[in-house]
Design a protein that fits this description.
By secondary structure, the protein is mainly alpha-helical. It is built from 3 helices and 2 strands. The protein has a two-stranded antiparallel sheet. Strand 1 and strand 2 form a beta hairpin. It is rod-shaped.
Length: 78
């Protein structure tokens, strides 16, 4: 299991923002910039997957029998 998988989404986003800020400054040595870039790509992938999983979870509803169904905008929940 990678280190990023143990992170919370908010922590990963904060680290990603710090990496972007450091790289935008332009005063980071090349080797360090490459390492930070690679870590940023990994964090970005983790955040994207986390958001996709959350979206999939939120678009499912559970019926009265406990079966999961995809939530449809036009479903009659009223």
């Amino acid at each position: 299991m990678s280190t990023e998988k143990k992170l919370k989404f908010e922590e990963a986003m904060q680290q990603l923002e710090e990496i972007v800020t450091n790289l935008e400054r332009g005063d980071v040595p090349l080797e360090e910039a490459l390492d930070q870039f690679q870590k940023g790509v990994s964090l970005s992938k983790f955040c994207k997957e986390t958001l996709q999983n959350a979206e999939q979870t939120l678009t499912k509803i559970v019926d009265e029998k406990g079966n999961e169904k995809l939530f449809e905008e036009n479903s009659e929940l009223d």
